[in-house]
Amino acid sequence: MKKYLLLCFGCFLFQFTQGQVQKTEPSPPIRVIVFGAHPDDCDLGAGGIASVYSSMGHKVKFVSLTNGDKGHQDIGGGELSNRRLKEAKEAGKRLGIAYDVLDNHDGELLPTLENRLAVIRLIREWNADIVIAPRTNDYHPDHRNTGVIVQDAAYLVIVPNILSSVPPLTKNPLFLYFRDRFQRPNPFRPDIAIDITTVLQKKVYGLDAHVSQFYEWLPWTSQDLDNVPKDTEERKKWLLTGMERRSSVTPEIKVSLDKWYGKEKAEQVKYVEVFEICEYGKQPSNEEIRRLFPMIP
Predict the structure, then answer these.
(1) 192-195 and 272-281 as β-strands: parallel, antiparallel, unpaired?
(2) How far apart are CA 192 and CA 293, in angstroms?
(3) How is the chain split into domains, by residue range?
(4) Does CATH number 3.40.50.10320 belong to domain 31-179+190-292?
């Protein structure tokens, strides 16, 4: 036995000195960038997976294309945009991600060349593997135009002569759409369903930072302001109830969950974030999706 062990050690030593024993290099972090029209849009659509990616050591950036300076019933302009910037930065801290807010006026976002180049720059500088944005048939013109701007950037991020001051990406990212409820001209397709059951409260903690929106403006627009609790902890519980409804599993989503998690594990999923694969950019295989979404078992 002693001779055998010495022989094995000798073989290892020979291989090591010859450079034949290789260390396994860690995989580079997955880099995700999410675009919304207003400071809180990204949080609603991807706050759950952002929290999961961050906890796994991957990199996430949220970008609001407007400063949100119109979204309130009592204040506006610079006062509101400054408040919403602080809220966005606090949400980023709570989720463990980066958060940028561009200085376009709320309600006035247009798919201009300037905005397209800004999005191309952000995607390139982040070296994104995944880009997420709203679809272009949303109720809000800022949401629709955010979708158009990101779509227009989808191919151009790899074109060297477009925005030549920033090196182009060497590969096209995977472009995805947020979940929405709109049916025309075509309903949302739940291609990728991600379980956020265990992180839903963390997502709500991030949303809770947007006080001006979830406890003031949005309840005012739905004539529900009187029902918002005054106590801070009760407000979080109230917000959690709303997010549970928003994150529920529909029959169509259940089919996607079965595909990615298997029927047995899918049965245990209560809350999800769901994404549609854009026809632009990378068209991934199932294996690539599993690599890009390592939280899928």
Answers:
(1) antiparallel
(2) 9
(3) 31-179+190-292
(4) yes
